[in-house]
Amino acid sequence: SATERTAQAAPHSDASGYHVVQPGDTLWSIAQRYPGVSVDDLRRMNDGLPNGLKPGSRIRVSAPKG
Q1: Cα separations (Å) of 53 from 2, 6, 14, 15, 37?
Q2: Distance CA 42, CA 8 (A)
Q3: Residue 49's pLDDT is what?
Q4: How far is C-alpha 20 from the chain's CA centre?
Q5: How far apart, in whole angstroms, are the C-alpha atoms of residue 47 and residue 57?
Q6: What does the DSSP assignment read for 5-61?
Q7: How does pLDDT run across 30-61, given as a tens digit for each residue?
Q8: In angstroms, rounded to a whole number, what is the distance separating the alpha carbons of residues 42 and 61?
Q9: Chain center to CA of 64
């Protein structure tokens, strides 16, 4: 299924285009996991991430499909 393929490609993402922040994650390390996504893209999709990355929080890593 598509969900299984997504999980294999990016273990901490869910099907809705979000990444679940893990301890030690940085914008750069998250961007490296998602081909075609830059740190600037992450900031733009998440209103600049003013509060930083908190483990367990979800940040958008891809535009909504459709």
Answers
A1: 27, 22, 17, 20, 17
A2: 21
A3: 79
A4: 7
A5: 14
A6: HHHHH-TTB-TTSEEE--TT--HHHHHHHSTT--HHHHHHHTTT-TT---TT-EEE-
A7: 999 998 999 999 999 998 776 779 999 999 99
A8: 6
A9: 12
- Whether 54 and 21 have beta carbons less than 8 Å apart is answered as yes
24 phi/psi in degrees, rounded to 5:
90, -10
Give the span between the Cα atoms of 26 and 4, in whole angstroms.
25
pLDDT for 7 beyond 80: no
DSSP secondary-structure letter at 66? -
Question: Which of these, 48, 37, 2, lies nearest to 19 by C-alpha position?
Answer: 37
Find out whether 57 and 18 touch, Cβ atoms under 8 Å.
no
